[in-house]
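Example 4.3 (complexes with small molecules)
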Amino acid sequence: MRQAGRYLPEYRAVRGKAGGFLDLVFTPELAAEVTLQPVRRFGFNAAILFSDILVVPHALGQQVGFAAGEGPQLDPIEDRRGFERLAAEIDHDVLAPVYETIGIVKENLDPGIALLGFCGGPWTVASYMIAGRGTPDQAPARLFAYRDPAGFAVLLDVLVEASASYLVRQLRAGADAVQIFDTWAGILPAEEFDRWCVEPTGQIVARVRAEVPGAKIIGFPRGAGTLLTRYVDKVAVDAVGLDWMFDRAFAREHIQSRMPVQGNLDPLVLVAGGTALDRAVDAVLEAFAAGPFIFNLGHGILPETPIGHVEQMLARVRKR
Ligand code: CP3
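Answer. The structure with coproporphyrinogen III bound is encoded below.
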């Protein structure tokens, strides 16, 4: 999940220096610095590359911007012609600074600390490409897929190829594992979940492993609920992230019995702090600590999170 960001003064300082968000992402020295900041401050066991899932549409030629405080803004794709104008393959020259960032981070990271690369799930990335922004339910992409499933499938095929080759480059540049963030998986009906989340993600995993045998891959279809069992049946990931809504008893029985799980503290309880935070940390540990498990949040850290609460959480986890 996100580690860097606006809750850290040292991030805000570098962000201010870089100019725009994408300038920060594409300036290797600065992107490496903000990747390392949370590890330096908190001593985490893993670092996550500082980038964004929307660099893939950017490298396909779509206009992508991040206005301060407003989230991503893309030139929306209204119909099949809209994405036929984009490149069929990603331009790795555009993404070269990201690979360079990975090299710098690896040089500066204790070898015992893993560096995670990542990309978005094709469904989630497509949903931003079509809506041009985040919406409450990504309805524009769902409508597109209902109206023109064949056209939507073409777009997802492009994203499968692009994402797989992007992850392969990240692994070759030195990422120890990669995570596929399908943030909007949970709004899909079951059949669409299979078609637009499970199948394309499975293809990415197969393609990455064909080029990098043994590549370690973590899946995160946020909001999948009980459909997560289908995901772990069909997508050959090594571990899955659990969002904070996920029923822990179900996860222990049906998911953790088969592969390691990562999660799933509610990012909002980290904002709240106090005894609510202590209780929530204990509940996560009690549910999962006996099996293969990575303690994490159930989604990205919120900008209003007090640093003291992160310290409180870490002290409690490390006491166990
Ligand atoms: O912690 C890290 O350094 C990891 C880097 C990272 C970012 N985005 C940086 C970022 C990762 C792993 C992501 C993933 C991402 N980006 C996802 C999937 C995971 C998730 O959080 O759902 C999605 C859907 C995006 C698209 C995106 N980027 C959105 C919706 C936003 C705006 C929301 C927000 O928090 O402001 C972004 C901007 C963004 N990407 C920020 C960061 C640190 C915030 C901007 C800033 O702090 O300057």
